[in-house]
Design goal:
The protein contains 2 helices and no strands. The chain is mainly α. The protein has one domain. α1 packs antiparallel against α2.
């Protein structure tokens, strides 16, 4: 899996976009995806350890 760009910069970009009402739902979807991936990774790591 390719390394993501630093999350802080990514979130900053997302929230700048989110200021524009039209993009708010897209930003929420992106954040949900990030959380889903993070949960998946945590679960996988706890299974492996």
């Amino acid at each position: 899996m390719p390394k993501l760009m630093p999350l802080r910069g990514y979130f900053k970009k997302v929230f700048v976009i989110a200021r524009d009402q039209r993009y708010q739902s897209a930003a929420l979807i992106i954040l949900q995806e990030i959380n889903r991936v993070r949960l998946y990774r945590l679960r996988r790591e706890s299974i492996l350890s």
